[in-house]
Amino acid sequence: MTGNLNHSAVRILVADDHPLFRAGVVAELRRNPAFTIIAEAGDGQQALDLIQRLQPDVAILDVMMPQLTGLEVARRLNQTECPTAVILLTMLNEQTIFLQALEFGVRGYVLKDAAVQDIEKAVSQVADGKYYLSPDLSGLLIKKTTRINTPDAPSALQSLSPAERTVMRLVAELQSNQEIADRLFISVHTVENHKVNIARKLDLKGRNALLKFAVEHKARL
Length: 221
What we know:
single chain, alpha/beta, Rossmann fold, Arc Repressor Mutant, subunit A
């Protein structure tokens, strides 16, 4: 969903195998009249079935659930090009899971310890077509990501123009096309053209490949 939140309520599914935690997230979301909880699930398979049947605007999934993990649900939804935007809830500070989540089209990544504070903003951002990463998680993941960069990082980065490198840095910060355009005082069309050229130069293929690469190599942009 990429429409304006004022036009209709954001339809949300919440899946977590801990009933009390799930109830807390649901209660927090119900405080916002712009949100409607249309379903809850206690395991990954139930969540997947409900998402495929109801097609909510946003699905909030615990990473670790019985039957299917939240990451596996995201992977399967990504394969079917389901329009539902996914937010993952996690207790894990694992950079590898974060990168997999990007690859599977996940648009939000929220630390469970901060879920009550962050979930409303996360849903608003994701429902508006943007990315969201819990502030407490952002610094940690970026630090972990920069450590995996080696001195022989792809030399193709050198082929990028200064403008393209700037766009890549903003992509690594999970900025949307519109946000990048506003920051650089250019059109969204120009941002999209830059991304096409960057993907060609770096031989990146597939949805979110450029985003994943930008996050992995942020220290060298």
